[in-house]
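User: Please work through this fold.
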Amino acid sequence: MRLHQLKIDFAAEQDRLLMLIAASEKVEVRMWLTRRFVKLLWPLLVKLAEEASPRIRTQPNPEARKALLNIEHEQAVSKANFAKPYDDSVRATPLGAEPLLLARIQTGHDPNGHPVVAMHPAEGQGVTLTLDPVLLHSICRLLQAAVKKSDWDMDLKLPGVEPQEAPPERSRRTIN
């Protein structure tokens, strides 16, 4: 199946993220992402993004790797179409009408070296996505936006865009 559209949004009444994956074959897969699952998934996505790029992977300087990751993230996201609304037309739901509660993640690479993420419920069938740079970074951006809407006290950041820590203020002592 070919991915057609992807949507991730916060569902307050469930306190979960709902991920909808529409395939070009008029098929949709619905999945719940819990806070715990997102905390496990995010570092894996960041690692895949770093490993997917030969420029980042071969850079010996950690600060340069972070800067390159930020540049590649912005380039990939600029190629995605976030303006087009998700097509809510009726689709077949081969894994069930109710969203799967994701519990397991596995990452790796396909035979061509592309990053792969497999997301599954505790038991049963899940989804395996082969990610190109645009899709990988788009998922990161969608996750960031959805988590921002939640009250999870999480801030998903890529290493290259984290703000520098402010230097600690010196304490003053006043003697009277």
Remarks:
- The helical segments are 35-52, 54-57, 62-78, 133-149.
